[in-house]
Amino acid sequence: MTVKLDANKILGKVNELEKVLIPRASKIALNRAVFDAMEAMRDEGRSKNYSDYSIRGFRFSKPKEEGKNRLVASVFINEDANKGNARSDYLRPQIYGGKIFKTRFQTALARTPVGEQDPDGMKGFRPAVSEFGGMHAIPTGTKIIRRNQRGGISRGEYPKILADIGGINSSGDKTRMRAEERRAKRAEQRKRRRKGRSKLGTESYFFMTDNMAAKRPGLRSNQEGIYYRNRAGKIGLVFAIRRSPTYRKTLRFFEISSETVKESFRRNLLKEVKF
What we know:
The chain has 275 residues and is α+β, with helices and mostly antiparallel strands. It has nine helices and ten strands. Helix 2 (16-47) packs antiparallel against helix 9.
């Protein structure tokens, strides 16, 4: 979306001194406007309980001159994916609507073989998540696992989940996943050493089909998905395998950004020139 701002129309009639101030004032006002829009989007992300990683993805670029009497600046979502999934990719369906984005974790699950009973009664293997069947691992919000400050699953848990259920990573993801897995294991070992010997069991993630879950005594859920067993032996569903959801437009990125830019630019321009 492009928002055009005309300093002369906003200011109206100006004297000779004010006319001299307009170029510098416009640059200051535009810089503050896109910064305010970035902050407005970050506030919107916080209100939706986005992760800190997602919130930091809202950025702005400072005004640059393009031709005579023309300044250009922008508010955008970072496309960098060095530390995980590109924020612009997984936030896009929330802006435009459409199918949920397939993260690195979801892609790895599609290459993770899990055992099940096939229609002929023979034991076989298939991916935990079928790419062709339009399935997705949906977080359940269970409180049985440790969560970060915003209630999400900590990033270090994903490689542990894949390792526990037998995850297979692509060559591109393998090095990062293994490094994260080693860090998670070292942290777990340190925690156990601090606690000393315990009579409690070992915590782990495992996959169950709906048939396997239905046969499990005392289990509240019989859904297919990834389960977690804590050290006390309690089991809970962490990811349910369901049809890939479709988002409706929930993130008002263009509306909030454009409204904030217009209001902030006008206010700051008048402040710099008239007051």
